[in-house]
Amino acid sequence: MLDALEGTPLWVYGAFFLVCYYGVSACKTSRESQRSLIITPVILVIWSLFSLSYADRVELTVSCWLAGMVLGGLTAFALFPRRGLTLDEEGKHLIVPGTLKVLGISLLFFAVKYFVGYQAAVHSEFSATLEMLVLAGIASGFTVGLFCGRAGVFYVTWVALQDSQERKRTV
User: Fold this and answer.
1) How far apart are CA 132 and CA 145, in angstroms?
2) How far apart are alpha carbons 72 and 98 in whole angstroms?
3) What's the Cα-to-Cα distance from 49 to each of 64, 114, 138, 154, rounded to whole Å?
4) Are 158 and 86 in contact (CB under 8 A)?
5) CA distance 141 to 52
6) Is the pTM of the predicted complex or chain greater than 0.70?
7) Does the pLDDT value for residue 4 go beyond 70?
8) Angle at Cα 149 formed by Cα 67 and Cα 81, nearest 5°?
9) E strands within 51-145?
10) Do 149 and 136 form a contact (C-beta atoms < 8 A)?
């Protein structure tokens, strides 16, 4: 185990601390804009698809990624309820209560990506096997699905709360 940590590139530690920072900051109440609810999932989808190893099995990798994304999205609807979400005073930002769930999901994703990257660096012949492609595809898709589903829950709630606020103003 120590050998794995000693051979880890420095940027991976930076990525780990960034993941931890993002997860810990999600433990506090935050304000989400409509733009961030749209842009963040798009960035995560693009980053996830570019980071996959396809190993001449594009259909398999993408189908596993899509299956993971659907499962992650459905799981997000159960993990991130609409309860507790409110609009700010101007009605332009969604107030999101803090949760440890984002930290847990981020750390889990980091651990899986670290394992896949480690296997690719140390046992490159193993990283192109069917099992590793399926694991990487499903894990990446599932994590992106969780974050996209979370953003979807928040966006739908934001729109519903804005509609409700508009109806109150017109009455």
Assistant:
1) 19
2) 20
3) 11, 16, 12, 23
4) no
5) 10
6) yes
7) no
8) 130
9) 86-87, 93-96
10) no
Q: What is the DSSP letter of 126?
A: H
What value does the mean pLDDT of the chain take? 86
Do 62 and 138 touch, CB atoms closer than 8 A?
no
- Helical H segments across 26-88, by residue range: 34-51, 58-79
Helix-then-strand count for the chain, H and E: 7, 3
Residues 6+ apart with CB under 8 A from 80: 99, 101, 149, 150, 153, 154
Encoding tokens for residue 88?
């700010």
Distance, CA of 12 to CA of 6 (rounded, Å): 12
3-state secondary structure (DSSP) of residue 58: helix
Which two tokens mark 68? 């993971």
The residue whose two tokens read 């189908």 is 63
The predicted structure's pLDDT at residue 1: 57
